Amino acid sequence: MPDTTTLTGVPFDRKPFTSLLKRRFFFTEAFEIYREGTNIKKGSKGLYDYGPPGCALQANIVEAWREHFVLEEDMLELDCTMLTPEEVFKTSGHVEKFADWMCKDTVNGDLLRADHLVESVLEARLEGDKRAREAREVEATRLDDSTKQEYDEILAKIDNYDGPELGELINRFDIRNLNGNNPVHPPIPFNLMFKTSTGPDAAVPAYLRPETAQGQFVNFRKLLEYNENQMPFASASIGKAFRNEIAPRSGLLRVREFLLAEIEHFVDPDGGKKHKRFEEVRDVELRLLDRDTQLAGKKDLRSMTIGEAVEQCIVDNETLGYFLARVKLFLQKLGIRLEKLRFRQHLANEMAHYATDCWDAELLTSYGWIECVGCADRSAYDLTVHAKRTGVPLVVCEPRTEPLRVEEWQTMLDKGKLEPLLREDTEAVEEVVAALSQIALEPAATTLAEEGEITLHLSASIPDITLGSELITISNVTRVEHIREYTPNVIEPSFGIGRILYSLLEHVYWHREGDVAREVLSLPPSIAPTKVLLVPLSAQPAFRPILHTLSRKLRALGISNRIDDSSATLGKRYARNDELGTPFGVTVDFESVRDGSVTLRERDSTRQVRASQEEIVDAIVRMVTGTEVWEEVEGRLPAFGVA
Amino acid sequence: MPDTTTLTGVPFDRKPFTSLLKRRFFFTEAFEIYREGTNIKKGSKGLYDYGPPGCALQANIVEAWREHFVLEEDMLELDCTMLTPEEVFKTSGHVEKFADWMCKDTVNGDLLRADHLVESVLEARLEGDKRAREAREVEATRLDDSTKQEYDEILAKIDNYDGPELGELINRFDIRNLNGNNPVHPPIPFNLMFKTSTGPDAAVPAYLRPETAQGQFVNFRKLLEYNENQMPFASASIGKAFRNEIAPRSGLLRVREFLLAEIEHFVDPDGGKKHKRFEEVRDVELRLLDRDTQLAGKKDLRSMTIGEAVEQCIVDNETLGYFLARVKLFLQKLGIRLEKLRFRQHLANEMAHYATDCWDAELLTSYGWIECVGCADRSAYDLTVHAKRTGVPLVVCEPRTEPLRVEEWQTMLDKGKLEPLLREDTEAVEEVVAALSQIALEPAATTLAEEGEITLHLSASIPDITLGSELITISNVTRVEHIREYTPNVIEPSFGIGRILYSLLEHVYWHREGDVAREVLSLPPSIAPTKVLLVPLSAQPAFRPILHTLSRKLRALGISNRIDDSSATLGKRYARNDELGTPFGVTVDFESVRDGSVTLRERDSTRQVRASQEEIVDAIVRMVTGTEVWEEVEGRLPAFGVA
């Protein structure tokens, strides 16, 4: 487990953290009672359900995403089907290439993901070596230095090996299944899409989409029309996608069904993929791990502005750079800790088959650096293959501001004279002439001008035919193009919402000094599942109407809140809500009945202020919508005794 | 096609309506370019994508639903996986029973849904008869009166026939495939769930959920715990579900992938399923089509308050009644036309296998009355079967206010004396004694008291054993139960969002008087995809900053808006937005540059007012949030010349 620390600098401990998330029903393994009571364990791994706080947190992240990206830039949101006919994924290349490499244990039949097998065995050996050195054991139990270095270098680029290369590593280092130490068969590809069939006759194969992107691409023509033919523009989609992982692991991080939020930004490939709002983000600082650094077996991060990164061609173009910066700003808004964020460039073999460049936003968690957002340049790949397969043009036609003058050679046959002469060969001649390239036409024109005739080769079965200049003319003409036709390129920022949600929870988890049992989730007010806890000091009936009025007022303002009038102590009720990440608590007491004032408690500091209900509601709204922070509220409203 | 009329009383015409929805990209058949360019037509039917306005409309309906139900009643929202292990659906009964009856054409192999086949053939014959009578044709081409009446009665309860009954109807009336007039094979059941498998070894079957409900049921224990053991409570879930329809048809109304919003309200079955907020809805009027009316072959609606319906036992209980009334209020809020809403009770054979009672909210469309919301009483069915299968108790344990005193017979064996006597038979005796019922124990106690011994029959292979009163005692004791344990019943309102969305669009569609080309969608401001269209009077650059300021202001207030500065005429730009259902238009003109005022146009009346930007923005916010209506705004702000 990598060493990560909580907000207070204490080492992060995953066990109590996971226990909190399950206890408070942020999520649970799906079909948990079936795992306990039956033997469905197999194959049901990698499926998780979100309980009420997890579900609300997810909804708030999605809402923030929609605001930050879709609304901010007038993106065209779509909702496309998950069921997808096989033909579509044959075209996109997913049927052939969307696979992981899998090894089978030769003895117990375990099915293992090949790169994870190599990774875990080498890491285990390095770990063993480290312990041996610390314990000053004999040399024989240690790795020699060159092996150690080799392992480190392999691990630094583990994502870059294809199946045969992984097979070689397995042979070379005698890598075996950690469960039982048996050898494994060579890696074979395993397609990650779930297959089913549609309709009653079972013969029509379909897949569950592994990404939302294809639904957006096949709708490109309608999107462009809806956008009144204006370029560039982006579409966006939020929805579930499915990948049949060989061996799901790492909790919410590698699952078989997950929520994706994807943007497809369609851009003219000419003109260097500039972005008109790039200036707004030019000075945003990013921490980058580029391709060259990784290939050198290193992991050093380079801190620089996105402006510098694009200038130095570390990031290929402005549009890609614009989105990297916007991704950082989005993650920051959610409460991601920036020292646990980096942008890593994909290695060549690691990229999906459709990508020409790709940068991942990775978040540091107790499972290591986790890819949470992928920003891929898919070039014109998808639109091109779908257009080719369906015959439907997926292009942009733009009037040229300056008409384009194209000089070219044109041929003309005198059909009236040709036909009586050539009879059934006429058509063959026409075809051959039409197929002559510009390069072939130039010397042909010269020959025709100089010799008055040219000779055409038709096919092996027909003798060559010679045409005189009374039958054919080849002339140099200037054609004027008023319309420019091109296939847009696509920049795709793709967000794994579940991974972001889990990493965020790790980032905001801590416990109060000196008491590991007093755990807190410091989620920002805008993202927290519930914003306000309303508590009566005691079971006194006079408190009830005040609580309900407050609750209705807050709800009308769109502020989610919960009344806790259970018999638990005030401290226990607040502790429960610290665990749920509820940022504010309002207490109603005898004073409230007398003068209408209430206290407002802030989760992280546990400090309180006291003011009228109107002032407190107003302060909460301002903090939830981000127009004020707690320190400002504390500065202007009177403090209230210790919590 | 049933006769339905638009808001202006003109007959509804589906053709221009559908053309509008496709033209404005509310939705499209999924993979449209593949339908044009390849042969994937088969099996890809029944899949639709929502374009930007459809997607926004769907999001607004979902948001209204969440507010009206989830937030209003503190329901516990879950997000559960769609992939579901086979074992779960075996338990719930879906693997065996979630099927439609299907007939195969004996000649061309067409696969037909049996009830739809019978329905369409009988309807076609009735239609033919009607036309023959109108044309005063000879008697031979008409149906005789008793046949006609029989057809009407069958159609009134078409949903009530099972497979063998449909088979009989097909034989009796010589019903054939309308496509080719061939006879069909007898109906066979066809399971509607999509099947796949999870994990790399392909041997672990799973299904795509056909409803979200099971995910909520299997999480019952955690939900109850999260709710701190308080009953009653409801969970809710919004997500996609899948049904492999035999023959998708009717556009968005019968599709293979659709958005469901489902509530599972868990209630104590004792005490008549009262609802504590029933008083709030008691006087809500509903139009009901109950079971008895349908079985009598009739379709008359009975108008009454839900209070009366529950009193008269037409609707079984308060909780079910409460939700029927709340459903009506919700649909009204969306803009559904109440004269096109009815509640129809399911017939016995029509109900899903898990339901004991069910009422559908049906909406009248050009396809007839369409089930859009189902309110089923699932009793304790689901929790009981899952608990039995997994061995995990899914019950509520409540402390009794009054301890319950239970008188019962108890047995006691003197093991110290028994064992030396019976040796290996001891265990068998213990088991038999433990299994004795209360009914068997009473006479046994009498025998033991009177004769001093009783004889036990153990099994066929062991001789009967006689025990004296020194070995066994049977005594009448009073046990006090402090805890009550019960399995909750479930009332389930289940909303087909796509069907509601489509029906709503039919309800709000009309065209301006005398001009079929000037079409309008009168969606309520809170539901409309875009709230405000911002238009400059001309391309004058001075208008631009005003438009952008207005746009930013509205966006910050959560009001979606769009600037249209295209070169089309003002009339054309407004017409386009009438078709998109945009309720308000703001025009910026020369006057705006001079004094800051702008005009506000209302979609349905096309009337306009003029005021300062602040006043106009304020009026828009009030109308979108429902605190003011257009007529009030018109009453207090100065009118502006004709549009």
TrEMBL record, chains A, B:
<dbReference type="InterPro" id="IPR027031">
    <property type="entry name" value="Gly-tRNA_synthase/POLG2"/>
</dbReference>
<dbReference type="Pfam" id="PF03129">
    <property type="entry name" value="HGTP_anticodon"/>
</dbReference>
<dbReference type="InterPro" id="IPR036621">
    <property type="entry name" value="Anticodon-bd_dom_sf"/>
</dbReference>
<dbReference type="InterPro" id="IPR045864">
    <property type="entry name" value="aa-tRNA-synth_II/BPL/LPL"/>
</dbReference>
<dbReference type="InterPro" id="IPR004154">
    <property type="entry name" value="Anticodon-bd"/>
</dbReference>
<comment type="similarity">
    <text>Belongs to the class-II aminoacyl-tRNA synthetase family.</text>
</comment>
<keyword id="KW-0547">Nucleotide-binding</keyword>
<keyword id="KW-0030">Aminoacyl-tRNA synthetase</keyword>
<dbReference type="InterPro" id="IPR006195">
    <property type="entry name" value="aa-tRNA-synth_II"/>
</dbReference>
<dbReference type="GO" id="GO:0005524">
    <property type="term" value="F:ATP binding"/>
</dbReference>
<keyword id="KW-0436">Ligase</keyword>
<keyword id="KW-0648">Protein biosynthesis</keyword>
<keyword id="KW-0067">ATP-binding</keyword>
<feature type="domain" description="Aminoacyl-transfer RNA synthetases class-II family profile">
    <location>
        <begin position="193"/>
        <end position="525"/>
    </location>
</feature>
<dbReference type="GO" id="GO:0005739">
    <property type="term" value="C:mitochondrion"/>
</dbReference>
<dbReference type="GO" id="GO:0070150">
    <property type="term" value="P:mitochondrial glycyl-tRNA aminoacylation"/>
</dbReference>
<dbReference type="InterPro" id="IPR033731">
    <property type="entry name" value="GlyRS-like_core"/>
</dbReference>
<dbReference type="InterPro" id="IPR002315">
    <property type="entry name" value="tRNA-synt_gly"/>
</dbReference>
<keyword id="KW-0963">Cytoplasm</keyword>
<protein>
    <recommendedName>
        <fullName>glycine--tRNA ligase</fullName>
        <ecNumber>6.1.1.14</ecNumber>
    </recommendedName>
</protein>
<dbReference type="GO" id="GO:0004820">
    <property type="term" value="F:glycine-tRNA ligase activity"/>
</dbReference>
